Hints:
Strand content: 5-15%
Distance between the termini: 76 Å
Order of helices and strands: EEHEEEEHEHE
Oligomer: single chain
Amino acid sequence: MQHESPRGAQGLPEYDSACPDHLVTRRQLRAREVSPGGHGPVAILRCAQCRTRPQRSCTHRTRAWLYDLRLARPKRTPTLAQEWALDRAMAARQTCPRCRRRYVFVLPLKTLGCCLECHDGTPADPASYIAPPATHLLAA
């Protein structure tokens, strides 16, 4: 149910539970593989607590911003150079500076400075990392 007067701090209309089909949340946009297209939210989906207080504007963190699906644009596909740059950035966050293993998750480099196995000897699951490339000193 939409309230007639916009009450939000931004002057956006607020909806309790049912809203028009063309208004969706960010998560619903992501599921449809589209982006807001440079447009901001056009309405607010009120939280469950504020639905019982129609005279007040919802300012809780659990409210949802609604975007107009008609203004949405397809997501851009990254170029090979952008994908390479993202991979290098993630490699820096996933590679232990001591043992040079690249893990499948981000390491706590700011707090520990290395992986858990190098820090305190906690054994790492072999399926959670890629071993560093072998460096050999053979002539051939």
